[in-house]
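thread from #wetlab-drylab

HS: before we spend reagent money on co-crystallization trials with guanosine-5'-monophosphate, can we at least see a predicted complex? here's what I'd submit
DV: go for it
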Amino acid sequence: MSQQPGKLIVLTGPSGVGKGTLLKLLLQRHPEVYLSISATTRPPRPHEIDGQHYYFVSHEQFKQMVAQGDLLEWAEFAGNCYGTPRLPVEQRIQQGQWVILEIELQGARQIQQTFPEALRVFILPPSLAELEKRIRDRAQDSEAAIIRRLQRAAEEIAAADEFDLQVVNDQLQTTLTWLEAALFLSQETASRLPTSRR
Ligand code: 5GP
């Protein structure tokens, strides 16, 4: 009997919107889902572990990965490169597993071309002012990086309608319940979920 292919889920939303926290909680409840580990040229933040949060690579190594076709998608973001290693994702999908990519807008657009059947979800902040507060409270980036991230956030939010589903991350628990329903209900039912954008 041939195996059913898995499902690819793309989660996008501006830096600071809370995608990481949401995913951490979602994966605690659904450990069978695989969260893709990206490669990045960004230096690790204090709590980040190589091979767990990201594969931290040099610009040279990243260029080589691109040239060899090792990345499913990649993009530049706030001065650094980020990309999804192809093999682990393709293998898991073939084996019937569900895979989540937590990536920015350019990458999500590339996935739309290569995996049109992927379910693409956009997480919105309650407002730009709240997003700025969250990025500043996180205190992980330089002022220049914060400004670049906020500019990029405005561009990404403007493209939210390109996604299959959108949700405003106002209350973490509510967003988590909504996200769980969106992913684990049938696609047809999920497309009828109320979102604050409709
Ligand atoms: P951060 O530096 O805050 O960890 O990530 C910055 C942005 O890069 C976030 O919006 C995150 O979703 C995105 N990102 C992380 N990994 C990838 C990836 O593999 N590909 C793309 N296109 N974006 C990524």
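DV: The longest strand covers residues 71-77.
HS: ok that's useful, forwarding to the group
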